[in-house]
Amino acid sequence: MSSRADEIEIAGAPEKGRSLFSDALLRLRANRAALASLGLLGFIVVAVVVGPWLSPHDYFTQNYGAIWVPPTMTESHWFGTDGLGRDLFVRALEGGRISLLIGLVATLVSLVIGVAYGATAGYAGGRVDGVMMRIVDILYAMPFLFFVILLMVFFGRNILLIFVAIGAINWLDMARIVRGQTLALKQQPFIEAARMSGASPFAIVLRHIVPNLLGVVAVYITLTIPQVILFESFLSFLGLGVQEPATSWGALIKDGADEMGRAPWLLIVPAVFLAVTLFCFNFIGDGLRDALDPKDR
Amino acid sequence: MLSYALRRLLGAIPTLLILLTLAFVMMRAAPGGPFDADRELPAQVKANLEAKYHLDEPLYQQYGRYLWDIAHFDFGPSFQYRDITVNDLIASGFPVSLKLGGASLAFALLFGVPLGMVAALRQNRPADYAAMTTAMLGISIPNFVLAPLMILLFAVYNDWLPAGGLGSWQNYVMPVLALGTAMMAYVARLSRASTIEVMRSNYVRTARAKGLSARRVVWVHALPAALTPVVSFLGPAAAGIITGSVVIETIFGIPGLGQFFVQGALNRDYTLVMGVVLFYGMLIVAFNLVVDLLYGWLDPRVSYS
What we know:
Number of helices of chain A: 12
Structural class of chain A: mainly alpha
Largest sheet of chain B: none
Distance between the termini of chain B: 8 Å
Strand content of chain A: under 5%
Order of helices and strands of chain A: HHHHHHHHHHHH
Oligomer: heterodimer
Largest sheet of chain A: none
Number of strands of chain A: 0
Shape of chain B: flat
Radius of gyration of chain B: 24 Å
Number of helices of chain B: 11
Helix content of chain A: over 70%
Shape of chain A: elongated
Distance between the termini of chain A: 12 Å
Number of strands of chain B: 0
Structural class of chain B: mainly alpha
Helix content of chain B: over 70%
């Protein structure tokens, strides 16, 4: 596809020439599953951010006059209440805030580390590259998840620690992808031109390499966020994530699983929220990847 | 090939060393010792215990001892279970986990590969969309969501399957489904992509042009090549199944390694926890080696030099 775009430009119609990016945007717009997912995800994000303010309830107040209330559309507890009489609608949205926030922040952490590491290794090349990538290979073989679990057990469930720990183990893929792209980019004439005109290696990486990695990075972000959300939920499900009364989807699912015989809505509501969100992210990530690299379609 | 295998095993040594060192450092850095019970032990008893487990030696000596023991596959005594070594616990838990994980992997391959290939051969038709939406659902529903939902459906509302324990084959149905579904979905997506690519390749076109039947082209010519990405995915898949089994074993009350790990972490049984982590590390290294050797057997273009 890119070669066609190039040909159009060479043919001498620059004002009509389609860039790689606008090409990709067109393809993405044609992908109805990805578009629908984007809309649904947007709706969830807005609901999660705004919803808790609109509800008459909050996520921590216990109300022993209204415990185990099943979901009703007529009364104020849309999704029912838990064994402490806390409103599940607000708790599900509040849990979404935490889950999405962790997804975003941890992805950003891994993004910064991964891009910096990968671009440095790729641009430096040679022995530096060899050593840096060997380190990545070694780290790949580590069962990090177990170490994160241990960290949580040993040093308490600190939300900051969750961010850092998840981000710190997720950068390996990014580093590999970015390095590969950087190796290819390095050969391009415009990088040589920048070097000729005296730009420092740091400036070349920051101003010329990294901006050209945006497409890959975008795909990676949309595919990493669900991974991180999943991971946090996994920790919370084991009872090692966020602490009461704060909650996340994983923590809610755990509570729900414990009481599913008596109050199945406590399990089903957060499970649906989590699954739908992951579903949307995965579809968008897939759509983006197909749009930027359409050889399989 | 033998020298390749040897080189790979040597290459795994730094990995395992780092893993071991990390394990040791974390074990020592963790606040609270293994004998800080609710009830304060008499000083003499505590000193004796520490002497017995060599906790009174300088750190470098403890590290050396740990290294030496692990090199002899001696994971040390469990801190929590009296008179039981971590080796005993691993020996009792691993077969159970292996059965569960092996069955899940088999399930993922037996259903994932055909699903992906059928989708690829009907690319962009309803069957393809249906298969890929199913796969996406499988990826998006985490195992710790799937497991309780299945229990709710099949054990609580309908009395079709046992909710936990390990008595007969029925006990394995839900854990295997919960553990294997996401893996199956990944395998389906991978084999779809690779089948599409292979079906467009020149040698498949040649096979078709020779007048071979469609069935023969798919089964004999395309399948082995389409399987290679799936095989290389087996390494990460095994790691995923190992971590997944931590949750699944806890939910279904299966006395496997994953359950031991969680219990050990919560009880601060450091030697047990570290032993399990190291054991998993070795397992993943060994498994990856097997996968790479299998890869070479499947794809004649791969050479071990």
